[in-house]
Target: Epoxyqueuosine reductase
Amino acid sequence: MNVKETHTSLIKMEAKRLGFLSCGISKAEFLEEEAPRLEQWLKKNRHGTMHYMENYFDKRLDPTILVPGAKSVVSLLLNYFPDKVQNQDSYKISKYAYGMDYHFVIKDKLKSLLQFINQEIGEVGGRAFVDSAPVLDKAWAAKSGLGWIGKHSNLLSKKAGSFYFIAELIIDLELNYDTPVTDHCGSCTACIDACPTQAIVEPYVVDGSKCISYFTIELKDAIPNEFKGKFEDWMFGCDVCQDVCPWNRFSTPHQEPLFNPKPELLAMTKNDWNEITEEVFKKLFKNSAVKRTKFDGLKRNIKFIRSS
Model:
C-alpha cells in the first residue's frame, strides 16, 4: 500500500466506525458539468424565494475557492430511514425530521473524523459541511461513486435507496479517488408520476418552487391557492418521490439513537395537530429540524391542508 492508499483506507474505516453508511472520495476541482445546469435552473427561477441559492455561484462549483488548498472532497452518507412511522390518522412530517436535527448529529461526527485524520495522518487543513454552505452535496456524492442522481434529483444507491443525509469534509490532503457509478433509473417514472404538485418538470429536473417541501419549510409567504388539495397531508417536507422509488425497497432502519422520534410524535392524530399549542410544539420539536418552520409556519401549513 502506498501512502495515499493507506490514508484513504484509514479515513474510510473511521467513517464506518462513526456510523456513516458509506464514504466516497473525489478530487477537489471545478464541477464542469454542474455549472451550466445550475445556471439554467437559477435562470428559470426554479429556486422560488430561496434567493440564497443565487449567492456564491463560484464557490458552489469550485471547492478550492471555498477551502483554499483543497485537494479532496470526502463525501459521507448517514442513514435516517426509521423503523416506525407516524400514526395513519396524522398530518405528515418528512422522515428526516423525526428525531434530532441532523445538522447537530452529523457535525459532531464530522468533527470526530477530522480530529482522527489530524491524529493519525498529521496536520490536515479542511472544513466540514452539512448542507448549510454553498456545496453541491449530491453532485459530489455522485462524483465519489456513492450513487447516481435519480429522476427526482435525489442521490440513489442500489444498496440503500435514498433515505440518508449527505455531508462532506473538504481537505487539503491528496487521496485515492473513487469513480462515479452508472444510472439505474432506466425507464421508470414512478417519482414523476407520483409527485402531487408535478414539481418534477422533466426527468432529473425539479422545480423547487413547486415542491411541497419548499412550500411547507422555505416559503414564508402564503401558500398559493392553486396547490390546494394537492398536499396529501404533508405539513413539513414531503417523501412521496422517495416512498414510491423501487430502490427504496432496500432501505434498512438506521442505527442512530438520536434520530429516533419521540413516541408522542408518532402518536399524534390530526385532531392533536389541529389543537397544538406553542408549548407542545416547543416540547415536541426541541432540537428538531421542524423548528425551522416555527410554530406559526406549522399552523399555517395545517390550516392550508384543512382548507383544501
Summary: The domain at 3-82+100-171 is CATH 3.40.109 (NADH Oxidase). The chain has a mean pLDDT of 96. Residues 190 and 246 are 8 Å apart (CA to CA).
